[in-house]
Amino acid sequence: MLHLTIIRPGGQVLEQGFASNRIVVGRDEACDLRLVDSMVSRNHCIIYREGDRFQIKDLASRNGTWLNGRKVDEVDSIKKGDSIQVGPFRLLVTTPQAASRDGARKFVSPELEDTLAHKDTTEEVAKPLGMISDYLMESTTDLNRVISAERRERFHRNLLALYSIAENLVVTADVDEILDHIMDRIFELFAPSQATILMKGKDGRPVTRKQRNAMGMGNPRSISRTVINRILRERVGVLTDNALEDPRFEDGDTIIIDGIRSIMAAPIWVENRILGVIYVDSLDRIGGYRSEDLELLTAMGHQTALGIQRWNLTRRLNKAAVRNAVIRQNLRRFHSDRVVDRILKGAVDLKARETVASIFFCDIVEFTSLCESGTPEQLQQILTLFCKAVNEAVFEEQGTLDKFIGDAALAFFGAPLTQEDAPVRAARCALSIRERLARQMEQIPDALRFRVRYGINTGRAVVGNFGSSDRMEYTILGHAVNLAARISKSAEPDQILVGPDTHEHLLERGLFVTRSAGARRLKGLKEEIRLFELQESL
């Protein structure tokens, strides 16, 4: 027969023998050893005989089963003198002798079942952290078993309170508003003498953020650091039914000095992180708070943390949105929205690299003369027309608009997006700009009319972000870029000239009409280069 000495949290000792080879321990009525406390799961653990030994196995209890101070992970053997911790109850194995095989039966005296309910008025109830869903599940199960109008009413009130809190925390503007709302609900639900909300500072120490007494005003009365430190250290909620008679508090503790009768405190927690503590006390109520109240306060602490977490996330997202908006605005100077989207998603690398690109140059013919004869307003109109046409055409082809240089524009295709048809895109872009400007010239006064020359070259170049920490730009560098500029300068007004590599790509596609523009010696080149005129698309 297995003998257990059962020690209640208040210190009462009970002896009990079990003739069965299998003993289920928990708070459910069907358990062989029923221990009534919310820290004990319905089916908490099982003790069973295997050969000449008794074994103990945890039944996936919420708070775990502990053998000699060590958590039972799977199965452990027990022997005489072992100490088993089940919630607040300690079970000492006194005589683990082999049980009688023919005497296996449930054996629990009515006296034992009655006295193992956890009811000591001076005790401390500590609740480990659990999800709100756990609280609701446990409470619903209890309601189904204990038919009590008062209990049902209290549970429904708590459920409505949690729903209301969750609903209001979604629309709160900041942390102060979240804490003010929680403070209001604390006084509605628990009617304390004083309530205090502490939040961890940057150094990890709890700092009072909100404090209110029953009159609705702030109160300088101190709170118990004993309770606060235990919550932060052991990650539990704490309920003391009669603090003045609780031996844990010394004469110098603020609880004794201020004559506090009952205390209830719970962590503000999320994902195993404690952000702060909700602390509630009463000067005139002995046993004024119940275990269910602590469960509700713990759930409120979790909701508070979720509200703060949501607010912090919203703030970070807003900052990120502003930052991304600035980045997007800067990127839109060079790239189309489609390319910008891919850059922001990390699908495009802007680091410096060598690649093959098609470089496009264009500039306004005889712009110096226009500057001499035109007014500032006319010059502004001319450049606006020019820049708008170039910008729209480049972005339509998913190109990169490198820069406007006074009366000229530089763009390229094939970076940062890899584009095998980069020469084709550059050719379509040049034709589109010429067509757009031709239509515009028909609608403006003669004094504002201008003509543009175009050049396209394909070759190896270096692309990427270049500059200083104060100013960085995505640009293209290399001989191929200089050659594109030289080709543009050698073109006639409204003429589009392309280099030999570009022309070869265009011929392969068969999408354009071109003709030879002859061999020319361009500035900076030792040898002549053969150029071609792009006339139109097929």
What distinguishing features does this structure have?
538 residues; single chain; 13 helices; 6-stranded antiparallel β-sheet; 8-stranded mixed β-sheet; alpha+beta; 36% helix
How does this structure look, described?
With 538 residues, the protein is α+β, with helices and mostly antiparallel strands. 36% of the residues lie in helices and 30% in strands. It has helices at 110-115, 132-145, 149-169, 175-190, 225-234, 254-258, 291-331, 337-344, 367-373, 376-396, 422-441, 479-490, 500-509, and strands spanning 2-7, 13-18, 22-26, 33-34, 45-50, 53-58, 65-67, 70-71, 75-78, 83-86, 89-96, 124-128, 194-200, 206-213, 236-240, 262-270, 273-282, 353-364, 400-405, 408-413, 452-467, 472-477, 496-498, 512-520, 529-537. The strands form four sheets. Strands 18, 19, 20, 21, 22, 23, 24 and 25 form an eight-stranded mixed sheet that branches. Helix 2 packs antiparallel against helix 3, helix 4 packs antiparallel against helix 7 and helix 10 packs antiparallel against helix 11 (422-441). The relative contact order is 0.07. Mean pLDDT is 81; it is low at 96-124, 141-147 and 249-259.
What's the layout of helices and strands?
Layout: E1 2-7, E2 13-18, E3 22-26, E4 33-34, E5 45-50, E6 53-58, E7 65-67, E8 70-71, E9 75-78, E10 83-86, E11 89-96, H1 110-115, E12 124-128, H2 132-145, H3 149-169, H4 175-190, E13 194-200, E14 206-213, H5 225-234, E15 236-240, H6 254-258, E16 262-270, E17 273-282, H7 291-331, H8 337-344, E18 353-364, H9 367-373, H10 376-396, E19 400-405, E20 408-413, H11 422-441, E21 452-467, E22 472-477, H12 479-490, E23 496-498, H13 500-509, E24 512-520, E25 529-537
Parallel strand pairs: 3-4, 21-23
Antiparallel strand pairs: 1-2, 1-11, 3-5, 5-6, 6-9, 7-8, 7-10, 10-11, 12-15, 13-14, 13-17, 15-16, 16-17, 18-20, 18-21, 19-20, 21-22, 23-25, 24-25
Helix pairs in contact: 2-3, 3-4, 3-7, 4-7, 10-11
